[in-house]
Amino acid sequence: MQRPLICVNGLSKYYLENMPVLKNINFSIDSGEFVAIMGHSGSGKSTLMNILGCLDTATDGHYYLEGRDTAALSADELAVLRNRLIGFVFQGFNLLPRSSILDNIGLPLLYAGKNKAERREKALYMLDRVGLAEFGERRPNQLSGGQQQRVAIARALVTTPKLILADEPTGNLDTQTGEDIMKIFQALNEAHNITIIVVTHEADIAAHAKRLIRVVDGRIASDQPS
Amino acid sequence: MIIGALLGEGWAAMRANRLRTSLTMLGMVFGVGAVIMMLAIGQGAQLMVSESIASMGSNLFIVLSGSTTAGGLRQGAGTVPTLTLEDAQAISELPEIAAVAPTFSNTAQLIYASSNWSTLVSGTTPAFLSVREWTVSSGEAFSDSDVRSATRVLLMGQTVVRNLFGDENPVGKMVRVKNSPFLVLGVLAPKGQSLDGRDQDDTVFIPITTAQRQLFGTEFPGMVRFIMVKAKSAEVMDRAEREMIELLRARHRINERQEDDFTVRNLTAVAQAAAGTTKAMATMLGAIASVSLLVGGIGIMNIMLVSVTERTREIGIRMAIGARRRDILLQFLFEAVMISLAGSLIGVVVGIACAYFFSRFNDALVVVTLSSVLLAFGVAVAVGVFFGFYPARKAANLKPIEALRFQ
Q1: What's the gap in Å between the CA of B322 and the closest CA on chain A?
Q2: Which of A50, A56, A82 sits opposite B322 (nearest CB)?
Q3: Fewer CB within 10 Å, N- or C-terminus of chain A?
Q4: Is the pTM of this model over 0.90?
Q5: Partners of residue A108 in chain B, C-beta under 8 Å
Q6: What ipTM was estimated for this complex?
Q7: Residues B298, B306: Cα–Cα separation, whole Å
Q8: 3-state class of B215 per DSSP?
């Protein structure tokens, strides 16, 4: 059997003592899955997401990414892991306001040590794939929310990661635009076998995924195909 | 991260807050400008002193005829004529001595045509040229035979030439000194100011015998006012001084219980003291100016800390997409160094311009050397790195999730 991409084992997270945000979480996600993590605000789903993205660390338990125990890695090793393996899509888009769209998309490649020509070439290709080829020289605030989120997706994909982590990716968008964004994720999952994890509190959005994990009060309440 | 990208990021950040960047740079402009200008003034002063020292001649003693004690009343140096031409001759035979110029001088009125000028008339021997390291710019010097036969010839300093002759060539002309006619044999090269500010070119030289016997009659034949003595090298100065004192005491028959009736002064030591004082002043000026560099550096640190706080979220985004700590550190360090570098470049220009205007309007010598520019520049960049490091490290040590959540 193939090694799972993500394996979470007895994971807990405390911000204050005796106030667990996550309690003894166990699950694994294989390569090529499309998972929705659902829960109300305050349920701990975003904290779980941040730990899965190596942005935050667990207090207890283990998180194995591609079989590697992330607790044993240094801050810089985690940065390299995020750069090579993971693409982030945030609710607030999180584009750099002063940089052009193309520079934003090429930024992960900069930290991967790629030269200017290669960054530009790949960024142009990704921009074209999300259908915004003519907007490359604009600034983020000159684009609509849906367009900005598509730029964010292009940035997440530019390093050809194995895993896309999307934290409320449709939260700032209207229903139709949100639907379009989810369709992009579906296409990426089906056509390119990229593992996608979407954190959301909306059932409509979660319905696009093939597997649904519900988080309630820091515990996994259910884990089933959707 | 790649240098080109770092430069681009730094430039973009500097442009994003133009007023703030300019004001921060202004701190470095003043710092570097002040250091360059102060160093220029200090080095200018040092150069003026060293030129004066060079014009005086090196390894120089002056032997003054002495003070005497008469009935408990002690007289100042030079009041009693105790030195003679024979003393000078004896000194010149000492092994450490290169040249000796006995001098007998007084002020006198010089007249040429309708012009007249009062100046210092020094009777001496041709050796004074080598003692004072002086040259004749036109005509020729008087010779030892002029000294032997006490002829009425003179060598004229540039200031005297200007005042008596204007643009006319004085060589071969007759001037009257205290109403005696003298032939102008030659003109001395210009020498400029002495250490104490006297115009060294405002003088004429005549054979010492002429001064003694004809011009300034004296009751003590063969007496000189002072003897200029040049030692062979700086190393033998101390020994030369001891031997001269011994020799003169013996010649003047001074017993062990009596004081010297002459004074030996080491002029080079005096000059070196003056040079030391100027150097100390130059160092102090530089030190004071570098305080402003420090203040400029603190300005950079201040603004970089603000910048890091403002851009915490940006740092979080960069970390999320794979920036390592080193990438963030370098980005902010580069920004700080770019600000200090740009400020320093402007500061160099401002400093040189200020030094130039200072010399124009104050008639003081300023010297901007490449090394002082490089020093100020190097220190400024070091200040940028030093004061940029703490904010940059602060940025690099942020935790990704905390930086991302920062509002």
Answers
A1: 4
A2: A82
A3: N
A4: no
A5: 321-322
A6: 0.94
A7: 12
A8: helix
Nearest Cβ partner for B323 among A56, A95, A111: A111
**Angle made by CA atoms A153, A158, A160, in degrees to the nearest 5:** 105
Query: Helix axis angle, B18-56 relative to B325-362, nearest 10°?
Result: 50
Contact A98 B12 (CB under 8 A): yes
- Fold for A6-225, please state it: Rossmann fold (3.40.50)
Burial of A22 (0-12, 13-18, 19+ CB in 10 A): buried
Whole-number Å distance between alpha carbons of B118 and B385: 63
**Beta bridge pairs of residue A163:** A86, A195
Residues across chain B = 407
As given in the structure block, the two tokens for residue B34 are: 């002040």
Q: In B144-262, where does DSSP find H-type helix?
A: 144-149, 158-165, 208-210, 237-251
Nearest to A220 by CA among A5, A28, A86: A28
Read off the amino acid at residue B163. Answer: N
Helix, strand or coil for residue B281? Answer: helix
* CA-based nearest residue to B187, from B172, B207, B198, B209: B172
**CA B369 – CA B359 distance, rounded (Å):** 15
Of B351, B339, B236, B237, the C-alpha closest to B297 is B339
Shortest distance, CA A187 to any CA of chain B (angstroms) = 22
- CB pair distance less than 8 Å for B404 and A113: no
A173-190 pLDDT, tens digit each:
999 999 999 999 999 999
Task: Return the closest-CA partner of residue B293 out of B347, B346, B332, B336.
Answer: B347
Write the CB contacts of B133 (distance below 8 Å, at least 6 apart in sequence): B54, B55, B57, B58
pLDDT band per the 50, 70, 90 thresholds, residue B75: low
pLDDT tens column, A145-154: 999 999 999 9
Strands A19-29 and A6-16: antiparallel
Please, are residues B91 and B227 in contact by the beta-carbon 8 Å criterion? yes
